[in-house]
Amino acid sequence: MSTEIKIRRFSSAETDFDSKLKALLAFETAQDDSIDEVVAGILKDVKKRGDAAVLEYTNRFDKTNAHSIAELEISQSELVGALNGLPLEQREALKAAADRVRSYHEKQLMASWQYTEADGTILGQQVTSLDRVGLYVPGGKAAYPSSVLMNAIPAKVAGVQELIMVVPTPNGEKNQLVLAAAAISGVDRVFCIGGAQAVGAMAYGTETVPQVDKIVGPGNAYVAAAKRRVFGVVGIDMVAGPSEILVICDGKTNPDWVAMDLFSQAEHDELAQAILLSPDATFLDQVYASIQRLVQTMPRQEIIKTSLSDRGALIQVRDLDEAAEISNYIAPEHLELSLEDPLAFSKKIKHAGAIFMGRDTCEALGDYCAGPNHVLPTSRTARFSSPLGVYDFQKRSSLIFVSSTGAQTLGKVAATLAYGEGLQAHAQSAEYRLKK
After folding, report:
1. Residue-wise burial string across 353-384, b where 16 or more C-beta atoms lie within 10 A, e elsewhere
2. What is the pTM of this model?
3. Residues involved in catalysis
4. Among 32, 93, 319, 405, which lies 20 to 30 A Cα-Cα from 159?
5. Domain end marker among 236, 264, 282
6. How many domains does one find in the chain?
7. Angle at 147 between CA 327 and CA 145, to 5 degrees
8. Are 326 and 10 in contact (CB under 8 A)?
């Protein structure tokens, strides 16, 4: 007999609303010391022994029997073969998604610029791409070709010369859809390695795996801990928390639709968070009923039940303006505006990873094929972070070309400030350029 999901239900009118909301959003982001200790040891070993350490850990953790890292590299012909071997419908869907993701991200390219001042001094900005990027793709039970598209395509659009992908293949099992996504995204090299050892290999470089400039892509707790530790040696995209969705609804959307949208994030894992805000108490009742009925049809119903029971909520708000205020505090990864005029309402939203507007715009479309990136800030970090994009694979160099005339003015300013800071060499370096 099925059990009812005990999803939280409360109102913004309650005197202890703020504390209830904070408790709902609370998530322990502190590192597990035992995981960090294991990861530290693996990274140190990989840095010291290179290929030998990576091979040893890969054979142990993934139950493979490779004799060299070269054996674990997948050829371009195998990647193309995986793409061509997909069922026609699947291959066309993958290509359609890739085309949309590429088209969207091409509009994000930053351009170099410069201007010339009256005295001939030239100032500006030069934009260049990263040389080599590493992409981590989860393996095992997980198969995320969409993550390959979302991470690899912006890098290639940015002009990254070489894209190295790592993906664990437990028991030697390769996911053909993931390999096909690598082919269609232009990934240059793919290694069947994973875990902290793969992060270490890309961060430090080994005899076979080249060192990269930045590591992107999701992974488990060991991968996340490894990315934290190598940050500074290389760049990283982010250390993401559990997936989140916040739905703001006026009460006029089909409650089954809203319930399924909440499920779409809850099914990720038990720590995922799904929240609904609405001023309509009757509508919240209807969504609650839809949740109880529809969850019985879900293959991942146990995960959904745990997620909604532990971290989900149906919250009644005073009005939609208050919903916007609460949303900006939550700063959700995914925000659905299931409203009559979502475009106008979106102007009230300051903090969200991605904003899905209108009753037909379910979050799942953004995950796969709408075009914008699905790698988004979580755990309230949308207050200060942005989605992954082309700009994450480009960098800026300042351009400064001071004319002889300009040096007379700037030199005096610089020397005065340098003397004020007690840095005589700075001051005299500027003064040397001054005409006597």
Report:
1. bbbbbebebbbbebbbbbebbbbbbbbbbbee
2. 0.94
3. 333-334
4. 93
5. 236
6. 3
7. 135
8. no
